[in-house]
Amino acid sequence: MSSDERSKHQEEASKRMDTAQYNICFNSSTERPFTGAYWNHKGNGHYDCAVCGERLFDSQVKFDSGTGWPSFWDAEGNIAKVVDKTLGMTRTEVKCGKCGCHLGHVFEDGPQPTGFRYCINSASLDFKERKQ
């Protein structure tokens, strides 16, 4: 994505997001565990990027990891993975592959069949109910 496209997403998002949500999506901040809208959400549908609307995760791969953040064992959409060496450790950050929105991190301690745990900020997501 070009810097112009990212600037456009940031400008548009700044008009509709509160400061905390904007900082999570564009400054790689993190919401406190057990506080986000989707950590214990049980809806049937899909989770999209809160910035650009890209479909990212299906509710059928969501699981309770006990961490206080929405967790998924597989990604459905365009996810970019980036090495993150902040906080004195090496982790894999996940971002929306379309707009670059910070989503959270992925770890290799999740359930089978993938073994992944995508640990995602609720603030980075919008939920869309599945149409019957």
Structural descriptors:
Metal Binding Protein, Guanine Nucleotide Exchange Factor, Chain A, 9 strands, 132 residues, three-stranded antiparallel sheet, six-stranded antiparallel sheet, alpha+beta
Fold blueprint:
Blueprint: H1 3-16, H2 19-27, E1 45-49, E2 55-58, E3 62-63, E4 71-72, E5 79-84, E6 91-96, E7 102-107, E8 117-120, E9 125-129
Antiparallel strand pairs: 1-2, 1-9, 3-4, 4-8, 5-6, 6-7, 7-8
Low-confidence stretches: none
Radius of gyration: 14 Å
* Largest sheet composition: 6 strands, antiparallel
The portion of residues assigned to helices is 10-25%
Tally of helical segments: 2
Hey, roughly how much beta strand do the residues contain? 25-35%
General description of the model:
It contains two helices and nine strands. It is an alpha+beta fold and 132 residues long. The protein has a single domain, classed as Peptide methionine sulfoxide reductase (Metal Binding Protein, Guanine Nucleotide Exchange Factor, Chain A), CATH 2.170.150. The mean pLDDT is 92. One of its GO terms (biological process) is response to oxidative stress. GO terms for molecular function: metal ion binding; peptide-methionine (R)-S-oxide reductase activity.
